[in-house]
Amino acid sequence: MTRASGSRPRVGIVGLGYMGLATGLGFAAHGLRVTGFDVKEEIREAVRRGEAPHHEPGLGRLLRAQRKAGRLGVAETTEELVRTSEAIFLCVPTPSRPSGRIDLRPLRQSVVDVARALRPLSGYRLVVVKSTVVPGTTESIVTPLLRRRSGRPPELLGVASNPEFLAEGSMVHDALSPERIVVGVADSRALAVLHRAYRPFRAPLIALTPSGAELVKYSANAFLALKVSFANEIARLSDRLGANVDEVMEAVGRDARIGPRFLSAGPGFGGSCFAKDLKALTVRSRDLGVRLRSTEVALRINAEQLAYVRGVIRSAVGPLSGKRIALLGLSFKAGTDDVRETRALPIAAGLVEEGARVQGHDPVAIDNFRSLWQTTRISSRGRLDFCTTVEETLLGADAAILQADWPEYSRWPAAWTSLMRRPVLVDLRRAVDPARARRAGLMVIGIGAGTGQRSSVPATSEPMA
Prior knowledge:
The chain has three domains: 11-208, 3-Layer(aba) Sandwich (Rossmann fold), CATH 3.40.50; 219-296, N-(1-d-carboxylethyl)-l-norvaline Dehydrogenase, domain 2; 303-446, NAD(P)-binding Rossmann-like Domain (Rossmann fold), CATH 3.40.50.720. The protein contains 18 helices and 14 strands. It has helices at 18-29, 41-49, 59-69, 78-83, 105-118, 137-150, 171-176, 188-198, 210-241, 245-253, 274-287, 293-317, 344-353, 366-374, 390-394, 407-410, 414-419, 434-439; strands at 11-14, 34-37, 72-74, 87-90, 125-129, 157-161, 181-185, 205-208, 324-328, 357-361, 383-386, 399-402, 424-427, 443-446. The strands form two sheets. An eight-stranded mixed beta sheet has the order 3-2-1-4-5-6-7-8, sandwiched between helices. It has a six-stranded parallel beta sheet with strand order 11-10-9-12-13-14.
């Protein structure tokens, strides 16, 4: 494939999950021609119909617009995608293994598939690793495997790293208007292609080595996880002092050296990135003879926060056996249907193991959580039921737990309180305004809320089971 040096490259996206689809749509919305492929036929068909295969604000509307404009196509095979693309972005998952290392099998398979598709083709191609991989992966694993399996000389095959910085719940905005673009390149031609691809975005492009770019991704997530962990520890201290953690963190975040984002206390971080990335970076660093105590501490604080949450729940509810508990919010945070590493899972499991009947609700994530729950092996002293409305969830509840702060929960009308057996809400996100709660006749216990209602909660709490 030969193209004019100043023209925009045609882009291929291998993997149409949360990150891959948003990335492809970002390119398409900025005028590039994009072809996507996913190994799952149901995802390819959904995208072809203009239906978002997962929940993300604005994703479906953007998808329909780009399909209608003809800028986003769907390939049936990797060969078809590679044949029509100059820059091929690998956006496949890299899940965590029990050891903490990332599982590179999906990425390796994609590399082999792309390499096989490249063999009969002429012209230059650039393969870009956008999947989150530990520093050194592109240079030591992807590049040798790609060159060996494709049989292409270096002058006809470029390899680069281009980590993503998309936050679930704001992926569309982040894909369309990135704060910065980080690329890792080993040669000028690969950098030139990436410059042409990203020129319409008007964001600063920072070029490093491939390992340097990979380290940026892990360093950023580690630092953000540390901010969350710090806020969670201050929330525990706020409970002892009668202070309000939100007021404290708002004042702290006004320091320009610190900033306000990721200082909101809660049940601990979840999702597909933080825990996985911290574990992988910790293991990778140890392999290289460096101990990252900061990542180790963040993971430990996150585990302790879950134990603290369980202690707060016990203090609010008392003995759990036979109690009916409403669990509001099953995704790892509001704005997404992603349940990976959601705190709702260990919270629900602990309640059920102690004999509680849990009634779960989420605006969009019930199906995903049900599938996740079916893979969880726990004792059956209690049970978990899924409800389609908040009213059904609260009916007869001895207490409610707000785990993900979906906007519909924060409006809490008095009618909801009247459905409950005991008007108690453990608000893990401090989402319900105290004045609104008083008008609704609801007693709210919120981590770090400074209400003094958790003086009986032990400083360190053991797991429920």
